[in-house]
Task: inverse folding
């Protein structure tokens, strides 16, 4: 009837697999955010009990495109090592459970009305009865007007100057749909006429359903809570179909005065009003005496699933969702047609991302993906959405600096070069449009010669350019494209040092092949869109492509792990990061941009720090971006721990000499194990150092 329904944006369900590790406090936090209530007894629907090491939870269940969970009780037992075992209500082992999606944002349009339609079948009988008993006890018998109530109101009005109401549910619906709120005699006449019209055109079930979907039931910040389904979520964090008798009575009681009977503001008054509704239901023989007594004794048990701060967490993410969907659906459908938009967001990680960036000294952005399927778990495009809605994670193009270098090294490995390949690391001037270009290493330090592994570990510019000349720009571009870089790339050696601009999401997603065995899943922000009738408008399946083979991915992981152990990101160990991680720092000229992109097998995160005016700030990746990444990942890995990367059979381990890159002899200083793709391993012994006893004695005398 021309009324809009707000569109809702939902997070992804959270999966708990049997055998996965995770902190109990983190899982309980997820339940609390969803509005589950803690109990010491056997949990009812929407409750949980934590009696270490066992967590019992009665899941509400859900069914959305790509995910479903049956309602019921489930048991999770945590081992001493932190691994969860999952059981159903009968105690039988099951592979997994899924927590339902969390509501993270609503698009209420310019009228800021939060409204979600409920069908007649979704409305519990207790709610229908409570509303009829309180608002219009003869609803099922009159034809839109109640002569008895009208007579009573008329007599009352004759005794005083103030107009008294005698509106039926049908009249109230007519007023809400078609008329202004001003109480005048003319409006009452129009209301009566429209009520008779509605009764002729619609049956009673349809009228009551429309009424319950359109009444005003409170305020949540700037948004009006319209309809009983929105009210059930607002006051109890549950579906309207799951309302209990006392909860139904409370919502029915709120109708008369949402400001006066607001249970969050005045619980005592709201409870008294609820109890009045319950007694009216008993008077009308809608409930039995024992039901009345039990309901009167019940506490209010309010549960807000999220507060305004939680909604701010998702601001950048939600804005990007809208930006992507507007061209496909248009503003009218997106803001007025009650769509349900399901995303890949992890709301706990999104909350953590916002809090992490709030501590940044300069402007910053952070993107988090699951490298296994491309799910964008968190996306924050700035320190504060209130201050600036510009999304620096998706809309800002900046030079990535040395975070681009891994694509150069991945291209080299595919060409047959190895982590032990010797590179030239000396100053060199390159012709550049008639002028000389002399890129330098950080702090002007050169090693003369070095291996590919050390060149990446310490981010040596000169050695990387030597490698880029060997590999060729075309192969570097092809590798970067295969990994997911879509922005234009330069056709000069500046490309190898990260001179071509990209956005943060683009380059973070391009690291997924390193973390996922060479496979590049397409980044997923939106997983499905469903209309208000439950029709799936879109639910594209996950997509992936092969960037390179698993062996190349393992070698890249091995080198990028060294970056965090002994290279430019070695400061991680002093920042509380105790788990294995791989990644790469990046810094652009004059410290205008600082980057760090790092990952485990289950989490991939990238941080950019800089300035919107691109001013020189003397930033560095290790000093400015790395600490933010560490602060985020320390918390994020609590229930998303990574697993060790598995070495493919096609990768061999050989002890080599770092000076020659050949098989080490007894006299080689600093010899160490190195990984090689099968067929690329060195077969000749080092020619720079002696072998046998003489070599051993020589190395002993050198002290290495």
Result:
């Amino acid at each position: 009837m021309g009324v809009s329904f707000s569109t809702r944006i939902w997070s992804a369900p959270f999966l708990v697999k049997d055998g996965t590790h995770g902190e109990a406090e983190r899982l309980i936090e997820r339940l609390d955010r969803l509005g589950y209530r803690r109990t010491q007894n056997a949990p009812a629907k929407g409750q949980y009990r934590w009696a270490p090491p066992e967590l019992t939870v009665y899941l509400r269940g859900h069914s959305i495109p790509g995910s479903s969970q049956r309602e019921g009780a489930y048991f999770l037992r945590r081992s001493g090592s932190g691994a969860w075992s999952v059981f159903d209500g009968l105690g039988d082992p099951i592979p997994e459970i899924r927590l339902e999606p969390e509501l993270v944002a609503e698009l209420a349009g310019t009228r800021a009305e939060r409204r979600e339609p409920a069908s007649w079948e979704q409305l519990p009988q207790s709610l229908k009865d409570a509303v009829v008993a309180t608002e219009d006890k003869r609803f099922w018998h009159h034809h839109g007007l109640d002569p008895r109530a009208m007579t009573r109101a008329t007599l009352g009005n004759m005794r005083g100057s103030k107009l008294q109401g005698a509106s039926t549910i049908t009249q109230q619906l007519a007023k809400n749909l078609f008329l202004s709120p001003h109480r005048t005699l003319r409006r009452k006449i129009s209301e009566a006429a429209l009520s008779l019209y509605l009764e002729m055109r619609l049956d009673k079930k349809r009228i009551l359903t429309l009424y319950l979907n359109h009444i005003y039931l409170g305020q949540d910040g700037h948004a009006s809570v319209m309809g009983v389904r929105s009210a059930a979520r607002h006051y109890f964090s549950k579906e309207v179909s799951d309302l209990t008798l006392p909860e139904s009575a409370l919502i029915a009681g709120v109708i008369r005065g949402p400001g006066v009977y607001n249970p969050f503001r005045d619980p005592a008054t709201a409870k008294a009003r609820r109890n009045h509704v319950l007694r009216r239901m008993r008077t009308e023989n809608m409930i039995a005496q024992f039901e009345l007594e039990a309901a009167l004794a019940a506490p209010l048990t309010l549960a807000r699933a999220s507060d305004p701060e939680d909604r701010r967490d998702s601001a950048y993410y939600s804005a990007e969702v809208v930006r992507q969907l507007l061209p496909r659906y248009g503003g009218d459908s997106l803001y007025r047609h009650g769509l349900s938009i399901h995303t890949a967001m992890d709301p706990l990680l999104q909350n953590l991302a916002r809090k992490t960036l709030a501590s940044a000294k300069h402007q910053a952005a952070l993107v988090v993906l699951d490298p296994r399927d491309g799910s964008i778990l968190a996306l924050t495009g700035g320190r504060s959405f209130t201050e600036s809605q510009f999304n620096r994670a998706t809309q800002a193009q900046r030079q990535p600096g040395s975070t681009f270098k891994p694509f150069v090294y991945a291209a080299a490995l595919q060409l047959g070069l190895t982590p032990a390949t010797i590179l030239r690391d000396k100053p060199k001037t390159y012709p550049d449009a008639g002028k000389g270009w002399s890129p330098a290493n950080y702090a002007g330090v050169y090693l003369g010669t070095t291996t590919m592994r050390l060149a990446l570990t310490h981010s040596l510019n000169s050695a990387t350019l030597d490698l880029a000349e060997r590999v060729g720009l075309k192969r570097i571009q092809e590798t970067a494209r295969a990994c997911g870089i879509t922005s234009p790339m330069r056709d000069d050696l500046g490309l190898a040092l990260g001179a071509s601009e990209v956005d943060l999401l683009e380059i973070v997603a391009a690291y997924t092949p390193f973390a996922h065995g060479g496979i590049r899943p397409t980044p997923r922000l939106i997983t499905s869109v469903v209309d208000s009738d439950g029709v799936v408008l879109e639910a594209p399946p996950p997509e992936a492509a092969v960037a390179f083979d698993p062996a190349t991915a393992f070698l890249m992981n091995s080198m990028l792990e060294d970056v965090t152990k002994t290279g430019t990101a070695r400061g991680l160990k002093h920042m509380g990061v105790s788990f294995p991680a791989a990644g790469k720092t990046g810094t652009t000229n004059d410290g205008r941009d600082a980057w760090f992109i790092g990952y485990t097998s289950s989490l991939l995160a990238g941080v950019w720090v800089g300035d919107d005016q691109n001013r020189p700030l003397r930033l560095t990746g290790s000093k400015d971006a790395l600490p933010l990444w560490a602060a985020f990942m320390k918390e994020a890995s609590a229930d998303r721990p990574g697993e060790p990367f598995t070495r493919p059979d096609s990768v061999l381990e050989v002890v080599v000499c770092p000076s020659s890159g050949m098989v080490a002899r007894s006299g080689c200083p600093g010899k160490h194990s190195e990984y090689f793709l099968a067929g690329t391993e060195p077969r000749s012994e080092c020619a720079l150092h002696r072998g046998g006893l003489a070599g051993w004695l020589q190395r002993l005398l050198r002290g290495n």
